[in-house]
Amino acid sequence: MGGNINENVTAWNYRQLVNEGNHAWVVAKLSSTEKVAIETTAGVVIKPGMKNASVYFKGIEFDTPAQVKRFELLRKKAREVCSGCQ
Hints:
The protein is α+β, with helices and mostly antiparallel strands and 86 residues long. It contains 2 helices and 5 strands, in the order βαββββα. The strands form 2 sheets. The chain has a 3-stranded antiparallel sheet, with no helix packed on it. A two-stranded antiparallel ribbon has the order 1-2.
């Protein structure tokens, strides 16, 4: 999943997530009703209900690392094209 864990992104729309996203993490589905976020940078598991957990369960979902790479490539190209846009 990708997004921004330094902001409360729960009310953000997809465009805001694309433009302001600056971090990636793993969300593991333990069952059909239970999931946890794995913050590999800090080496911790975040469970729903923990302090500040909501930012880890809202973001842009990717199924594979290849999708993340393609997303970043396209986002970079879009920023280059739109850098002069007003």
